[in-house]
Structures are given as structure tokens and as C-alpha cells.
Amino acid sequence: MRLSRYFLPTLKETPAEAQIASHRLMLRAGMIRQGAAGIYSWLPLGLKVLKKIEQIVREEQDRAGAQEVLMPTIQSSDLWVESGRYDDYGKEMLRIEDRHGRQMLYGPTNEELITDIFRKEIKSYRDLPKNLYHIQWKFRDEIRPRFGVMRGREFLMKDAYSFDLTEEDGRKSYNSMFVAYLRTFARLGLKAIPMRADTGPIGGDLSHEFIVIADTGESEVFFDKAFDALDPMIDAGAGDDLQPIVDEWTSIYAATDEIHKPDNCPVDASKLVTGRGIEVGHIFFFGEKYSAPMGASVQGPDGETTNVQMGSYGVGVSRLVGAIIEACHDADGIVWPESVAPFKVGLMNLRAKDDECTAACDKMYAELTKAGVDVLYDDRDQSAGAKFANMDLIGLPWQLAIGPRGLKNGVVELKNRGSGERVELSPEDAVTKLTG
Amino acid sequence: MRLSRYFLPTLKETPAEAQIASHRLMLRAGMIRQGAAGIYSWLPLGLKVLKKIEQIVREEQDRAGAQEVLMPTIQSSDLWVESGRYDDYGKEMLRIEDRHGRQMLYGPTNEELITDIFRKEIKSYRDLPKNLYHIQWKFRDEIRPRFGVMRGREFLMKDAYSFDLTEEDGRKSYNSMFVAYLRTFARLGLKAIPMRADTGPIGGDLSHEFIVIADTGESEVFFDKAFDALDPMIDAGAGDDLQPIVDEWTSIYAATDEIHKPDNCPVDASKLVTGRGIEVGHIFFFGEKYSAPMGASVQGPDGETTNVQMGSYGVGVSRLVGAIIEACHDADGIVWPESVAPFKVGLMNLRAKDDECTAACDKMYAELTKAGVDVLYDDRDQSAGAKFANMDLIGLPWQLAIGPRGLKNGVVELKNRGSGERVELSPEDAVTKLTG
């Protein structure tokens, strides 16, 4: 993509309304713009990142055997009356009356709707287990939306729902999502730690939050550094017993500041890490909480009808864009992990008015594009300093600078945004390095 | 995907509420389920088709130089007051009051919001042309939603918005979308004809509808059979003049029954085709209709400030799922064009209790999957007749039946769903044919 054509309205100044790093940087890098309080439009650069995150989340859900569906944003209130949550949810639920005076709502979560789909279609234990997920916009009418996409009102969430015949099977489904989450966050370039959590309005008695460690995170967290020795990229097959893995991850101490008691901590001070964290996922096992009131039951092998055992599993997809930036930025801007970077390479023409330099840049752009490398090509007539600052701000993993001086010596400059390391090399070697 | 695990609740009976073929078949094939009037959940099979259509639409927008953004579903009413459409839109607009009493709405279209984004960020003619699109759920509170996804309330639409300095440039943007639409619908396996149209609540004086020809379409259409000689897969480059192509397509007679006058038709009866059609796209050029009241202007090369010239371009993405089925079905079920088929091949084990047959099927499934072919594998213990009927219903392009009798002779049976042609061939030849 040529920057001269790309819709990338970056800002030099920090917008006054942004209090945290990710909000500031998403505005400055031209990723989002606010439409109304807590409601954002995603501009091209932001949307590319959002979609890459969404795709990694999707792949790990699919890998775990969950099947993708798509429920609508607008629901009838009837199902929420049936589950008993219509009144519980309070003012965070956006309630809507349609033209015929029917009570509707913008779904803040989907336990009711998926349970309704399930109960109408699945009648036998033979069709279990099932895990259905969707990636859809949700709305929660926060009283004070703030921090950009970290605490917006309209937000993109992946929510999965598992259905099993027995509690034992339900826990297997829970474990499968637990492991999928570890893999998902690792692939996103994040260090995520599962922590035992309260279940709140979702319900149930088994629940974990996944907290991403980020220096500028929203809350203080405490954990045993033994987590460092664990590998989250668990390579388990379909039938494998995941309980030992989950036991290992959950046996190590980790707590948010709400739960952590300094005087009563089981971990020796020398092994305790104190940091800051951001919640990016939350999983629940709640058995019959919805299946019982809503009559979601199947016939078991013994012919008896049984309420199904359910769990639900959320990932804040749009929130993750902010969380990744909180975890991956420096004073100059964003430092994207390669798996979610909007482009792999930022190519800079340091002298757009020089025909030879421009020809060399055009050639490099064509070659990298042909080799399948996603390149943002700054072909504008601007100063080298402005271009470097802009590339640092938007945080692409590699910066490739081509100028007349280097070309005279047959070299271009390649910088790694993360390490800051710069090397001069021939254009051919640069292509090899970036396509290798 | 093994059918024994897949969430595919097909129905033998035709649901009473469905009046048209696509609605009946989408319910019977387990693609959608209704949540509330005109609001649907997409089950795995339906979502796969929806995503394939969405991706083809996206590719052709990108090819035409449009850039993808994503605007939210919920908007503030302020912008609509500013453009003057807030009162015009009537009861079809879903109006919402948030917890602070602010007037919000669920976007039925996005001219206002995109114009607001544009005016805040783009100030110079140097940043033009720009064409920004998004693929997002919309809501129109139809008084009588019906016909499934063909006339739903919550629906997925691709809407693009072009911004140009001059009317001449604006018409170039219009032409570029015109050609992109011809390519899009052709790639979806559809015959689509552009017809001059009224502009309705969007406004402007230049507009075309794209009508898909389908025997069971919603309205009667009349067109010159000269369209048959035109190739919609126009291979134009970025700077090419598209006016001659657009002129050619728009010079041939085509009209819906609202406009067509039998006594006053310019086409000779021998060359006039009468058929039925479904609107799937609508494009508009409306100049300053929004830029003037909302102050979306840029500085031109002469230093003067000018309101930008705008157009908008819609494709009904979820509606297309229904339109394709209306155009592509027979008495037994859906006949998917290969470009949007949810799976390429339906593999049937005709004797699931026979170990040898099952081993042969498992092997075929593994080989095709490894070769990158997307296979739905009916591994259930059901009668061959039920399996064939089910495959015909869901309409995958290829059916591959493996049974003990054929295996004795070293053959499997491959059926083309479209032509009905069946051939017996060796398993190896079947793999070659399906991967070739």
C-alpha cells in the first residue's frame, strides 16, 4: 500500500481526552476515531490489526473443535425474562423498543440466545459435545466509557458456549477452552496468566480470567515466577486429557490486587512477581444455570432426559488491540508483535524527488509485494525525520529506508522496530531477509 | 468436517412460515434460524457461505482501490439532524435512547458518519480520491419483515463512499464501482444486470440498481438479450478509462416492471427477454448532498475551498445468500456455485457399519483434506437414501459416494450436483479430479 493513497490520519499531538497509552497511540496512529462516547470507527490501519487478532482467535477456537456461528446483535427480551436475567442486568443493557412496541435489546452477551438455538435443535446425547462460538459486536452501556477500546460501549467479543451431557464432560470442554486461550494469547505475542475469578452476572462456580501482563495495565497483579517455565503453546490432540495441563497452570499462585493478601501469600517474596495486568479473556463453567430455567435438555443413553451442562468463554477481541499496545509500546510509539502487525514492513523513500531513489524504492516495493510481503510504502514527499518518526509511531516490525547516499554505496538500511537494531545491506539481501 | 460432529440441523419438512424458495431452503438446510421477526442467527453452514460472499465482495472492492474501514452499528442522532435526514427516515430507523437519555440509532446506512470522519481528517485535494467501504450489520425496522434474509431487519451490507474534488472525478469513482459490481456478481456465479434507478432517500441524480436474474425473483424485469454478449469480468487497470465500458452496459435496454412500458419499449419483441429479478446492489452519485450541509470540503489546487463530490455504493451481503439460492436451486435443494459453496465435496459413507468401507472413506477424507479440499464427510450411520437426499438439499458442488459394492470393483461414485452427471472411477482418480 502506498502511503500517499492510504487513509492514515496520524497525529503529531497527543489528544487531550486520551488518558492511557493505548488510547493515545491508537488515536495518534490513525487506527480509530470516536463516533460517540465509547463507540469507535476503525480506520484502515486499526481494522487490519483487529482482523488479524480475530483470525488468530478463530483459528484456535476451530483447532479446539468449536464451531463458528453468528448470532445477531439485536435480541428479543423474552429469552432474558425466561432466564431471569432481564431485570438483573440493569442499565448496562441497551434496551430498545421496535416500531411495534416490542421490547428488544442489544446483546451484551449471548447465553440466552445460544441456549434457545440449542434447545430447539439438539435432543440427543449423541449430538454432544457441542461448542458453538461467534465473533460479534456487543453493547454494554457503561456509565463512564473511557480508555478508548479498552472500556468502550460497542465492542467486539468472541464468545463460545459449550454443551455437554455430564459435569465431567463439561469440565473437559472447559479445559479445552482453557488451553485454547493459552495458545491464543501466546500467538498474539502476549504473556497471559490465568487467574481464578469471581463469576459475577454470568454465574457458576468455576471461572478463570486471563490477564495479560503489561507495565501500564489497569490493575496490579501478583504471581509466582514459576509461570515463566511453562510453555503456553500446548500441542494436544483431540482426545488428549488436558486436566494435568490445566492443573499445572492453575496450581501456581496468581492473583489480582482484589484477592491478593500480602500477609497471607503462599509464595515466598523472592519468587513473587508484582506487575500490572489487563483482563482479556474470561471463562466460566456454570452447569445448569441456563439449561434448567430454559429447558435445554437431551435424552441420555439411559433414555432419561437431562439438562445439559454449559460453560461460556469470552475473549475481548477489540479490547485486545488496546491490551497488545499497552504491553508492546515505547516512548516513540507502538511495537507490534509480528503476528498482528498491520504491515510487516514500512518502506521509506528518503528522497521522493530523486528519480533514481524513487525507482529503487518502486522496485523494492514491487519485489516485496510480489513475494507476498505486506508493505506500507511511504512514497510521500516529506522529510526523512518525519518519515522515521511516523514509522516508529505506527510500529511496523521492520523499517526499510532507502536514500540516495546509501544507494551510492549499494546499500539500504533495515531497522528492527523491537530491538532498534539497524543494519546496512544490499537491496537483494534485504529482500532475502524480509521474505525468508 | 465430520457430519457426526457438525452442527447442521437439516429439516425434512418445509417450515410453514417460509413463502419463498431461499427462505425454505435456508431453514431446511440448517443455515439460519430466526431469533425475532426479521432477525436471524447464522448456523455454521450458512455462515460459511456468508463469509465466502463477503470475501469476494471485499476482494473486488480492494481491487478497485477502495479501502476497508469499520464503522460502528450504533450512531449518535446528531449527524442525522445535521444532514437533514433524521426526520425523513421515519419508522424504519431504529431509534434508541441510552442510559444518559442521549438519542442514538442503529445505522440503516452510513453517509452521515463517513462524511463526519472525512471532514475531520481530510483537508486537501492531494488526499483525493478516496473510497472508503465497510461490511457491517445494519438495521431497518421493516414493518413486515419476511422472506428470510431477503427482507430481514438486521442485515449485512457492504457500503462504500467515494470522495472526489470534481464531478468528473466523482463519475470516475462511480464507474470504478460499477465495474467492480459487475465482476463481484459474476464471481458469485450470478447473472446481474445494471438498471437505471430512482435514488430514493439516498438522493442524487445518477443511480443504478444491479438486478440478479432468478426464476423465482421478487419482481418482473425486461431486458435486451444483447446483455448475453457482454463479459462482466472486466480486466481494467488502475488508470484506465472505464466510461466506454459503462456506456456499453448502460446503453442496452433493461427495466423493472415499475418502469417498463410494453407499448413504448425500444427493443424489438424478438430480442426482449422477460424474466424475474432480485436487487442485490445499488450505487449512487449524489455530489454535494451530504458534503454541503455537513461541511465536508477540501482545498483545491487553486487554494479555493470546495465541497467534495460524493457517491455511495451498496451490496446486500446477507441478501445475496438468498439471491444466490433463488438463482441456483432445483426441486431437490440448493445448487451452490463453486465460488460460494460451503464445502466443495460431500463425502458419503454408504455403509458406516462396514469397517472396510469406513476405512476407505476415512482414507479418502484424510487425502482430500490434506490436499486442501474442504470436505463435509457424512460418517453417520444412516441409510444411503437419506444421505443422498441430504447432500442434494445442502447443494455442495460434488458428491462422492463410497459403498461396499463399488469398493469390490475398485470404484467410487462422483456426482456433479449441477449437471446431475455421475461417474464411477477409482479412488485415486477421484482425488485427482477433485484436487485438479
Task: Provide structural commentary.
2 copies of one chain form a homodimer. Chain A has 436 residues and is α+β, with helices and mostly antiparallel strands. Chain A has 12 helices and 23 strands. In chain A, strands 3, 7, 8, 9, 10, 11, 12, 13 and 16 form a 9-stranded mixed β-sheet that branches. Chain A has a 5-stranded mixed β-sheet with strand order 20-19-21-22-23, with helices on both faces. In chain A, strand 5 and strand 6 form a beta hairpin. In chain A, helix 1 packs across helix 8, helix 2 packs antiparallel against helix 5 and helix 2 crosses helix 8. The longest helix of chain A is centred in the middle third of the chain and has 21 residues. Chains A and B meet through strand 1, strand 2, helix 2, strand 3 and strand 4 of A and strand 1, strand 2, helix 2, strand 3 and strand 4 of B.
**What do the pLDDT scores of chain A average to?**
96
**CATH level-two architecture of the largest domain in chain A:** 2-Layer Sandwich
CATH homologous superfamily (4th level) name of the largest domain in chain A: Bira Bifunctional Protein, Domain 2
Fraction of helical residues of chain A? 25-40%
User: What kind of oligomer do you see?
Assistant: homodimer
The CATH topology assignment of the largest domain in chain A is BirA Bifunctional Protein, domain 2
Number of strands of chain A: 23
Q: Tell me, briefly, the overall form of chain A.
A: globular
Radius of gyration of chain A: 24 Å
What distance lies between the first and last C-alpha atoms of chain A, to the nearest angstrom? 21 Å
In DSSP terms, counting alpha (H) and pi (I) runs of 4 or more, how many helices of chain A? 12
Structural class of chain A: alpha+beta
Biggest sheet descriptor of chain A: 9 strands, mixed
